[in-house]
Amino acid sequence: MMRAWNQGATALCLLLGLAVTCLGSATSLAREDLRIDITQGRFDPIPIAVRPFYGTQPDTETLGTHVADVISANLHRSGLFDPIDPAAFIGPVTGVQVRPRFGNWAALKAEALVKGSITPEPDGRLKFEYRLWDVARRADLVASSFTTPERNWRRVAHLISDQIYERVTGETGYFDTRIVYIAETGPRDRRVKRLAVMDQDGANHRYLTDGKHLVLTPRFSPTAQELVYLGYYQRNRPRVYLFNIVTGQQAVLGDFPGMTLAPRFAPDGTSVIMSMAKDGATNIYTLDLATRVQRRLTGSVSDINVSPTYSPDGEQVVFVSDRTGTKQLYVMRDDGSNMVRISREKGQYDTPVWSPRGDLIAFTKTRPPVPGSTDRYYIGVMRPDGRGERLLVGGYLVEGPTWSPNGRVLLYAEEQLERATGTIRRVLRSVDLTGQNHRVVPTPLEASDPAWSGLLQ
Amino acid sequence: MRGSLLVSVTMHAALVALAWFGLPYLQPEPPELDEVIFVQLSDLAEVTNLPPEPGEAPPEPPRPEPEPSPPPAPEPEPPAPPPPAPEPPASPAPAPPAPEPPPEPRVRPEPPPAPTAEPAPERPQPVPPRPRPRPKPRRLDLESVLTDLKREKDPPRAEKRQSLADVIDRTTRLGSDPDFDPTKTVTQSEISRVRQQIAACWNIGVAGAGVEEAETLAVEVRIVMNPDRTVRDATVVNESRMTGDTAFRIAAERALRAIRHPDCRVLVLPDDKYEVWKTFTFNFDPRKLVQ
């Protein structure tokens, strides 16, 4: 009897346990959190509203509009932002301290909002303050202020643009930079070429040389305060010159027995790398700026090795060589060892430039036109090992790419042929790495051979 | 006797052997097993509600729903007060002469303002019943800006406590909620509608142009909903990663921006299943898009 009772009790417990377990499982399954995977989205520029900066006086009010215009133009040119037309803005301009009415900005589909103020300081300088707001989240993203003489207002606008760009995209900006290039005028057989420098948006343009002598291939130093370029001040005797943009002084870098070509600074600014033609061969040399000691990196006796550029870490050099019969890209260590050809596809390559990020090498490529196109020249990028070649832009003549300091935009020279008149015009253009955002960089004259500085310091 | 027995056994054995080998139907055939097919059960709504092809207009909701409240109408701000007069210098003594500017102007950002001096940032301007003068913009100094940033970045403690209380409440009520009906589930078509809605609000930015890693990072966002289908709280899972990982922060902010987008303010969720969707997780995964 006792045994039967025990068996019954055990069976009952088992049943109860099973029931409880099942119930718990069912409940937990039903309670399992809903999870929704979002795998589709939009790839659109970010709508941003840049309000005129609030000025406490009539002149600062006008200046506030100019600052906002420069910021909007910078962000628009990047292709990553879509500034909203100020005509759509609602309500009067208010200072940076006044919290925005986010509903108004959301109605305009703005995802980001920039507000700022300009306040005169007792010492005559101006204080520029701004704040970037995330409209949807109603949260501020970044705020900063700059106190400087009024004449620097454009630089302040560029600095603010850089901070906005960096905060929203995660990439370093490139607006507080300069471009040096060769300004060209006159007929083709008597071309006048001058060194010219300007802000990246074309403002503050000025000529550095008078055009009496031929100048070529200007390149910035890492500090963006000096240039190195090739000058023909003595006929048939091109020399490498150093030019200080701040002081306007220049000096011959060295008196070399052969012809020197395409000088560029090393990333640390202590040396220059260039090509020198001597005894029937063109090889790559480095020149220490302090000691003026030369060092040869390539040892060809008949080949042409030109257009050397350092990697950002200074440990490798990419250059062009015709040792296989056509111009191809090669990479070697900074002491000339471990030379490897990296260009593999059909065509000839020239003017390689290593990205400041180190992930890509930009180049000019020539190849016969493909069916349906008349393009012979291309600007492209490839990885340092030669893989992943992509041609970003083609044309009648495009050449000489130079990187923005964040390694996302390329500037290059284009020769445009107007078929109706048969005239040729040289302009500067830019394209980003997506290959979609093409812009013309405004210059007063025809332009070629651009070089983009790093961020100003 | 023995001989008969042997003959009988032998004959029987022979008969059994003959029957065994001669009659094949006696051998049991191995049963043919059906191939196991694994299926996933999906909940379907009573009315088919498939998502349209890209480019088509979104389908009408299967049942009348309350209209999402329109975005706040642009409200004219009260008339601006006359620009404040420049503040007098702190000291009556004349200001010292400004130092000579360097030959090449250098502009450097000043350090962020200190976090303590100024009071809290001005509150959002309430919609006034009649125009009234706007508060005079305060002078912004370094300290005030930092104060603002600090206060605006950190949600009030009360809100944090509220969120935590919600979670605790939700957890403790598990299994005892009288409104909970475990048979109600959100159907695939209902999930698809929400997915489409959020996808339209999720701006990943121009492909290949932002920080590269942000396009390969999935971000999970924990959502707490209000019964009126608006988002009460959205918290990035692994939120601490946002402080040290720029790419993750950018990706997370894009996800949060999508959730707070005006077009996604009211999610297209079924009203009668609030208990099922009052908390859920969005997983923003751009990897397939980038590929």
Shape of chain B: elongated
The CATH architecture of the domain at 185-290 in chain B is 2-Layer Sandwich
* Average residue pLDDT of chain B: 63
**Main interface: chain pair and counts:** A-B, 86 and 95 residues
Structural class of chain B: mainly alpha
Q: How many alpha or pi helices of chain A?
A: 4
H and E order of chain B:
HHHHEEHHHEH
Overall 3D form of chain A? globular
Distance between the termini of chain B: 91 Å
CATH class of the domain at 185-290 in chain B: Alpha Beta
Helix content of chain A: 10-25%
> What's the arrangement of strands in the largest beta sheet of chain B?
2-1-3
Assembly level: heterodimer
Number of strand elements of chain A:
31
- The number of helical segments of chain B is 8
Largest sheet of chain B: 3 strands, antiparallel
Poorly predicted tracts of residues of chain A: 20-30
Describe this structure in words.
The complex is a heterodimer of chains A (457) and B (291). Chain A has two domains: 46-169, TolB, N-terminal domain (Rossmann fold, 3-Layer(aba) Sandwich); 178-452, Neuraminidase (6 Propeller), CATH 2.120.10. Helix content of chain A is 16%, strand content 43%. Chain A has helices spanning 2-31, 58-78, 102-107, 153-169, and strands spanning 34-38, 46-50, 54-55, 81-83, 112-120, 126-134, 139-148, 178-185, 192-199, 206-207, 215-220, 226-234, 237-244, 250-252, 259-265, 271-278, 281-288, 294-296, 305-310, 316-321, 328-333, 340-341, 348-354, 361-366, 377-382, 390-395, 397-403, 409-418, 423-432, 438-441, 446-452. In chain A, the strands form seven sheets. In chain A, strands 2, 3, 4, 5, 6 and 7 form a six-stranded mixed β-sheet that branches. A four-stranded antiparallel β-sheet of chain A has the order 10-9-8-31, with no helix packed on it. In chain A, a hairpin with a 4-residue loop joins β28 (409-418) and β29. In chain A, α2 crosses α4. The termini of chain A are far apart. In chain A, 46% of the residues are buried. Residues 20-30 of chain A have low confidence and may be disordered. Among the domains of chain B are: 142-174, no CATH class; 185-290, Fusion Protein Consisting Of Minor Coat Protein, Glycine Rich Linker, Tola, And A His Tag, Chain: A, Domain 2 (2-Layer Sandwich). A three-stranded antiparallel β-sheet of chain B has the order 2-1-3. In chain B, a hairpin with a 5-residue loop joins β1 (219-225) and β2 (231-236).
